């Protein structure tokens, strides 16, 4: 979520506290009051570690431990430490990282950018 202010969750199990894709899936379903589409939530839980890795590769400045590993914490009622964060403004940093990656693709000519245009109709 680009609105992520507390952080972004991923089942990387850095602290060996028993975190897994299944446990992240269950916590997300429970946190959403069982109203989410389970297949989509499970897919997000599966891809969560890759999403963190992609954001790091795009230059999102996640907090780090002194050892150089990505810092994570328990947040939002989770019983394990799986929340990766960027100085309390994770959503903004994710947005900036995605925008910078898009700008590089525009500069390389892979994407054609139309500034000041509005999508009026899809067909």
The share of residues in helices is: 25-40%
Mean pLDDT: 85
Radius of gyration: 17 Å
Approximately what portion of the residues adopt beta-strand conformation? under 5%
Order of helices and strands: EHHEEH
Q: What shape does the CA trace take? A: globular
Broad structural category: mainly alpha
**Strands side by side in the biggest sheet:** 1-3-2
Instruction: Please give the count of helices.
Output: 3
Return residue spans where pLDDT drops below 50 for at least 5 consecutive residues: none
Largest sheet entry: 3 strands, antiparallel
Question: Can you count the beta strands?
Answer: 3
What does this structure look like?
The two termini are 28 Å apart. 40% of the residues lie in helices and 5% in strands. It has a 3-stranded antiparallel sheet with strand order 1-3-2, with no helix packed on it. The protein has 123 residues and is mainly α. It is built from 3 helices and 3 strands. The chain has helices at 21-31, 38-57, 90-107; strands spanning 8-9, 72-73, 83-84.
How would the blueprint of this fold be written?
Layout: E1 8-9, H1 21-31, H2 38-57, E2 72-73, E3 83-84, H3 90-107
Antiparallel strand pairs: 1-3, 2-3
In short:
The protein has helices at residues 21-31, 38-57, 90-107; strands at 8-9, 72-73, 83-84. The chain is mainly α.
Which key features would you list for this structure?
123 residues; mainly alpha; 3-stranded antiparallel sheet; 3 strands
